[in-house]
Each structure stands twice: as structure tokens, then as C-alpha cells.
What does this fold into?
Amino acid sequence: FMLYPYAPQTGWNRFEFLQRRFGSSADQSHIPKRLRQEAEEVNLELRYDLIQYTPNTMLAHRLMEWCYLHFDVLEEVQPGTSNSAQHQLADLLFEGYFCRGLNVGDIDVLIRLAEEAEIADRDLREYLLSSGGTQEVNKQLARAPDLDIVGVPSYLMQRRFLLPGAQSEDTIAKIITRAKIKFAS
It folds into this structure.
């Protein structure tokens, strides 16, 4: 799911974007209380004050697709599991944007994050500069409305049960337990 699919390739200046959306009282560094509390519970320091751009994330989605095809498929790793290269890259993208203020719509930033994840190779830049993976990503994005996905994060279990929105770890664990029981019957 892309939050802002119509954002220009270069993204938007975050402060100007927030002003358009919330008016002159927009605060670029404001972190919603619940989100800040949950981040603190897992020792995560969100730094909205460092975020300069609201990115177009198509390149990041394509990087995730590339990572899946080049690592997780070859290693036969289940997508989304904590040992998958794609999962580790997703964590770095999240941390890069929300904790370090990196523009995850910028090709050079994405390549640096891929290097941090130890997945970059000499063909990655060429892939991101091409249209590689765009068709597959668009196909995946087109599925979102059919699955009732209207925001991020969204957790889809067994292709039948959707848990929308940010949830605490405890809530997710309880719902997964209930879903396992329901799907077993």
C-alpha cells in the first residue's frame, strides 16, 4: 500500500505538505502521543523533526521486491519472517525514515540502506534506475482495495483476516492466537 501514490518522484517538502494538510499550525516534529508511547516501550526514538520529505515510496517498494526475488526466494525464506532479508530491509527503511529522517524515495539513500542490510550488489542501481519490478509492485498495490487495505500498517493473515492500523505487540499476539484457532477449524 502506498500512502501517497501521486506524490512526485522527488516527494514533497514535508513542512509544506503538512501546512497544506493541517494549515498554518502544522507541527513537523509532532508525534501522536499513542505512537510516541508505543515507540518508547520498545526503545525506539522517533525523530519526526528530522524528516524533510514526504516521499514517493515506489522506489522503496521496488527495492523490497528486488530484495525478495534476490534473497528470500532463493533462500526459500517465508516472506515477512524475521529472518527474511525483506523483513530486515523493511526494518531499515522504517528506522531510516522515522528515526533518522532519511528520504526513502531517494535512490542514493535506498542504496545506502541496502548496503547496511548487506544486500546491495553492483546491479541494484541499474535496477532502480530502470522500470524493473514496477509491474509486479503495481500488481500487488492493485490488490489492496480487494483486500480492504486502506492504510498502513495492515496485517493480512491467511488471505482472509485483516488487522488494520498500528497495534501493540500484545494486541497483535492475541489476535494471531485467536486467528490460529479460527483458521484451524
Observations:
- The longest helix spans residues 58-75.
- The longest strand covers residues 154-157.
- The mean pLDDT is 88.
